[in-house]
Amino acid sequence: MPDDLSETVIWRPDLTAVTVIFDAAPAGYAGAQAIDPLALGALLADRAGIDGRHVVVADAAGEHRLWLRDPTPGQPLAAIIPLDRDFGTRIASLLRFHRLLFAKQSGPLPRGWPLTAYRRARLELMLRALDLRMDGATYRDIAIALGKDEVARLSATEWKSSAARSFVYRLVRDGTAMMNGDYRKLLRIR
Questions:
Q1: Rounded to whole angstroms, how far apart are CA atoms 4 and 32?
Q2: Residue-wise pLDDT tens digits, 128-145
Q3: If phi over 0 gives left and psi between -120 and 50 gives alpha, with beta otherwise, what is residue 112?
Q4: pTM assigned to the model
């Protein structure tokens, strides 16, 4: 994995509802088409593994994530849509890709997929707060490090009931949960 995180990450398809899953089309579907990822446009990622081929296709409206379970060239394919809680998002992602296949504007990514600026900023604060806490910083020290300088002047009683203390506590709590496995929630559509 690159240190600068500039390479496109391939997430497990079962965790990313925007990944469109393809497998060999059932016999008798003469109209089923093969997909040549190289003909779709610029590829941001293309990785083959024991479970098939994972491809991320660039698109001005938002990338397309594909999992070709049967990557045999020329193999007619069918989409697989698991009947799970992400069914609507999976359908929306498939429809976006279908429009791309037929040279139409694919449309925006499903709502909630890209991280908003607010969520990115909060995640950054969570990581900073968690790092400081794991290095032994108190909640008050963390608040000051995160720019809440006014808490240094608060008495112990005022600090205990301050909004800054509650904010920092929630950051550390949520950062700890992310560290312990909740990070996968980032891949879920809200």
A1: 40
A2: 999 999 999 999 999 999
A3: left
A4: 0.68
